[in-house]
Design goal:
Elements (H helix, E strand, L loop, with lengths): L2 H33 L3 H35 L9 H5 L4 H48 L21
Helix pairs in contact: 1-2, 1-4
Length: about 160
């Protein structure tokens, strides 16, 4: 295996670790703007999260392609190649560095997964609260005239 392929694979993994760390931080930061109902800040956070997701997908694609290339160069079938067998293709200091980066990656993935579940729960509970508020507003539709600003949310229905 070429030294440049080894270095590139490890560097791509490090970039993936860094991107996942940024995503974990972003999920924490977004929570505060979401709870304080700062819509503009929430939109900015979501936009940044979308960019991070795109970067992670790109890195996953590049890692997969490079992994296949390395496996094929070693005369192995990339489809059935497990992590232990793939790691054994690396030698010396590269193997140690790869194992260290893979451990970091596993830890960051676990953290990001947990934060994502918390964030999804927050969104689910918020959605319920917003639905309750929409129902309350809809029940008062005939009592108080809605402001023109919110007419798109609560269109006037026939008979009201």
């Amino acid at each position: 295996m070429k030294k440049s392929e080894t270095r590139m694979y490890i560097e791509l993994l490090k970039r993936r670790v860094a991107s996942l760390r940024l995503m974990a931080k972003e999920l924490l930061d977004c929570r505060q703007s979401f709870v304080s109902m700062d819509l503009e800040s929430t939109r900015e956070h979501i936009s940044y999260q979308q960019g991070l997701c795109a970067e992670i997908r790109f890195l996953d694609h590049e890692l997969g392609a490079l992994r296949r290339q390395i496996a094929e160069a070693a005369g192995l079938q990339p489809d059935g190649l497990g992590n232990a067998a793939f790691t054994s293709l690396f030698a010396g200091a590269s193997a140690l560095e790869l194992l260290q980066v893979l451990r970091e990656l596993a830890a960051v993935q676990k953290s990001a997964r947990r934060l994502n579940r918390v964030y999804a729960g927050l969104l689910k509970r918020s959605r319920r609260s917003i639905n309750v508020l929409i129902n309350v507003m809809a029940s008062y539709m005939g009592t108080y005239p809605p402001s023109p600003r919110y007419m798109c949310l609560f269109p006037r229905q026939a008979g009201m």
